[in-house]
Amino acid sequence: MNTTESAATESALGRLGELAIEVPSWAYGNSGTRFKVFGTPGTPRTVQEKIADAAKVHELTGLAPTVALHIPWDKVDDYSALRSFAEGLGVGLGTINSNTFQDDEYKFGSLTSSNESVRRRAIDHHLECIEIMHATGSRDLKIWLADGTNYPGQDDMRGRQDRLAESLQEIYAALGDEQRLVLEYKFFEPAFYHTDVPDWGTSYAQTLALGDKAFVCLDTGHHAPGTNIEFIVMQLLRLGKLGSFDFNSRFYADDDLIVGAADPFQLFRIMHEVIRGGGFGKDSGVALMLDQCHNLEEKIPGQIRSVLNVQEMTARALLVDTAALSEAQRAGDVLAANGIFNDAFYTDVRPVLAEWRESRGLPADPIAAYKASGYQKKINEDRAGGQQAGWGA
Fold first, then answer.
1. Which residues does 260 contact at the CB level (< 8 Å), separation at least 6?
2. pLDDT string in tens for the chain (393-residue length)
3. Rg of the chain taking only CA atoms, in angstroms
4. Secondary structure letter of residue 37 according to DSSP
């Protein structure tokens, strides 16, 4: 490594300390395919056990200081006590995710429903989530809707957008001064003819109408094949409306695989745009979060692998020689510009990251450290019996 490369690496490592990735409580519960949910030894039975597993990820990586909750999956009687419990383990409680997609009443929609009592129920659920945020100290309320229709003519698409806007306005008005509403989008499933929030443009339009405390959540698995996701990242950052990511990976649809598993170059390109657009760092306002299900692999190592993948691609993205890249772009030198980009991507940063972790009192290899810790054996024994957490629990 020459002097210039060494300086670039040191600069990149200096900024890596700003990286924080929120992990989701539900990643530690049982999940599976569209056809079956699989049980595994050591699976948490309570939200406290989910948080304990998340705290282990942070302990070994230093990358996951907060845990997102899903309501009602993570409902408890005392959220202030839950906050204290999490802080005692070295993590905080992060985004509160609402759920209006599992109750029978929401069969034909929730915030978009033509049934006023159903809409009222969905709105009240979000108001409850905001009260929970007050107790947990959470900043973001994340809304993903399964609302949509399966058949042409089933419902009035424009009317549903109007009702969504009205519902969101009431929820938005209840936010505290430091709280935000983040609206996620998904282009299909479970609604197959049309989905009420199918793309970033719809989410952007709805949140723009709400005000400065409303943002778009970009789930990396929620796009049609071939979609240029980094373009969307760039545009939302340019418009000041990118609030958060739900990181995962997919081969076909919303597969919820480990981030970077299917296309690590895509994750690199996304992180390049995040850095380029001012979305990286503790004060950027952009929350980086995982949204994954571990169907085959062990859950805690799966989360460790995920945050390490984000760290690795962030480090590579920080190595892009932006001055040389800008010069090549201005000169119209296509191959030079692409070469500069690829040089950063193909840099193997793993040995340097291992040294960087050790210098901060973290294990050089967090996966190996987890296997050697005996934690999995302990929770397998301690959590025998009871009702394991999973989808809907």
1. 249, 266, 267, 306, 309, 310, 312, 313
2. 666 667 778 888 889 999 999 999 999 999 887 788 888 999 999 999 999 999 999 999 999 999 999 999 999 999 999 999 999 999 999 999 999 999 999 999 999 999 999 999 999 999 999 999 999 999 999 999 999 999 999 999 999 999 999 999 999 999 999 999 999 999 999 999 999 999 999 999 999 999 999 999 999 999 999 999 999 999 999 999 999 999 999 999 999 999 999 999 999 999 999 999 999 998 999 999 999 989 899 999 999 999 999 999 999 999 999 999 999 999 999 999 999 999 999 999 999 999 999 999 999 999 999 999 999 999 999 999 999 998 754
3. 21
4. B
